[in-house]
Amino acid sequence: MSVDEATRHSLKNCGLLRDLDQRTLDAVAQKMAVLHIPRGKLIMMHGDETTETYFLLAGTVIGQLVAASGREILFTEIAQGGYFGELASLDGHARSITISAHSDCVLGRLQGADFLALLRKYPQLAINLATDLGTRLRRMNDRVFGLVVHNVETRVRVKLMQLAQEQEQLVNGGVITNAPTHEVISNFIGANREAVSRVVAQLNRDGVITSKRGVITINDVDALLDTED
User: Fold this and answer.
1) What's the start-to-end Cα distance of the chain, in Å?
2) 8 A C-beta contact, residue 17 and residue 25
3) Are the beta carbons of 170 and 161 closer than 8 angstroms?
4) pLDDT digits over 83-112, tens only?
5) Which domains does the chain carry?
């Protein structure tokens, strides 16, 4: 779907496109395709060989970052006006993040080659990107430190979010099938099985999830995402 006038107007609220004149905004819009994504839908997977950059015109998405070891996980939430996928557009490498729709979303998609061409042609766009990447790196350093000191409950919650996201079930009422045992979860997050079992039992009592053998139902996504220690 091509970009209509309403979408062109909403582009002005995208952080990466701040301070751009109308001519530059129009140039971006001309290269953009508009996608309507339902809640819970997987948009990109870690390791995908795709290079598009996405602008979040409406809605919210959730991103999962996994370290090379496969054990360290961070979650980030991207709201309307944000963007994602730009790293693969820049370096052509596989996706480093898994993204799914936390709500119904409207995305503006730029092909990787088009994104690079726009950066070369419009210096302000490149400056905005460099500034954003610097800010993001500082925040990531803080979050990596936080991950080291996170308690077992937070790590269990994050693992459950990962499992739900991979099956496109990170929505209220979403069902994780073939769910791993507490032993498997404990091995993944670096905790003992008894501690994991206590956390899962508490999440059940609080109504956040309902777990049975091999099946976990997500009752309250927002409560599950509340991972503050």
Assistant:
1) 43
2) yes
3) yes
4) 999 999 999 999 988 899 989 999 999 999
5) 5-148 (2.60.120.10), 150-225 (1.10.10.10)
